[in-house]
Amino acid sequence: MRIISWNANGKFREKFPFILNEDADIYVIQECENPEISNSDEYIEFASNYYWVGENQYYGLGIFAKNNVKLEFMCGDYHYLIDYLIDFATKNHSIKIYAYTSHDPKILIF
């Protein structure tokens, strides 16, 4: 299982082809565009199995996975911290991963 995390700093729809050679099972991408509003067919195809969250449609948190990876979304209940637990499994692996995005970086509490 290969997992890549990257802060794309926007315009991920233009940058994602550069990481495809890594052939990761899961990409955790900070500051990426919501695939639902994208006009890039290539980005939409890349995002065939994903979860995305954010207040700004161009700078959210995206979890992108290969189609053979099952993603299950569960949301925590925090006032300023949005907690996203992505539970995923493949034929040979079962892993839990926490991906966080915060409204206020001073209050990250684990």
Helix segment count?
Answer: 2
Radius of gyration, in angstroms, nearest whole number? 14 Å
The computed structural class is mainly beta
Uncertain stretches: 78-83
Q: From N to C, what is the helix and strand string?
A: EHEHEEEEE
Largest sheet: 4 strands, mixed
Spatial order of strands in the largest sheet: 1-2-4-3
Mean pLDDT rating: 79
Proportion in helices: under 10%
Number of strands: 7
- Percentage of β-strand residues: 35-45%
In whole angstroms, how far apart are the ends? 25 Å
Q: What overall form do the CA principal axes indicate?
A: globular
Task: Explain how this protein is built.
The radius of gyration is 14 Å and the shape is globular. By secondary structure, it is mainly beta. 9% of the residues lie in helices and 42% in strands.
Could you outline the blueprint of secondary structure elements for this entry?
Blueprint: E1 3-7, H1 12-15, E2 26-32, H2 41-46, E3 50-53, E4 60-65, E5 70-75, E6 81-89, E7 94-102
Parallel strand pairs: 1-2
Antiparallel strand pairs: 2-4, 3-4, 5-6, 6-7
Task: Please provide a brief summary of the model.
With 110 residues, the protein is mainly β.
